[in-house]
Specification:
It is a single chain. The chain is of the alpha+beta class. The chain is built from 1 helix and 3 strands. Helix content is about 40%, strand content about 20%. The chain has a 3-stranded antiparallel β-sheet with strand order 1-3-2, with no helix packed on it. It is rod-shaped and about 80 Å long. The termini are far apart.
């Protein structure tokens, strides 16, 4: 069987033949540490034909970088407001403490 790296590839296998096929299914867990993961899908037709393909999942590292960028943007957006609020509360607390 060819490499499973090709996206959208559909393998057709005749199950009635005497050949033995081994289908290596990629992992579907991001925790396995592989760059590509996906779900294997097999359909066995009534005529003995097997159709197999892999539904590839999107890569996680570009998505993680986008999430990190959005988090940084939100932090930098709200950080000045948060600091001003905390400083004003701290200043009013110190002012009350003196009197």
């Amino acid at each position: 069987m060819d490499s499973m790296e090709q996206k959208g590839r559909l393998w057709n296998i005749d199950c009635k033949s005497q050949n033995l096929y081994e289908i290596m299914v990629p992992t579907c867990s991001y925790r396995m540490g592989v760059p590509k993961s996906g779900y294997g899908v097999a359909i066995i037709r009534p005529n003995g034909k097997l159709e197999y393909t892999v539904l590839w999942m999107p890569e996680r590292f570009p998505q993680l970088f986008v999430y990190f960028g959005v988090l940084l943007f939100v932090l930098f957006l709200f950080l000045p407001f948060f600091c001003c609020h905390c400083c004003s509360c701290f200043a009013s607390f110190r002012h009350k403490e003196r009197y």
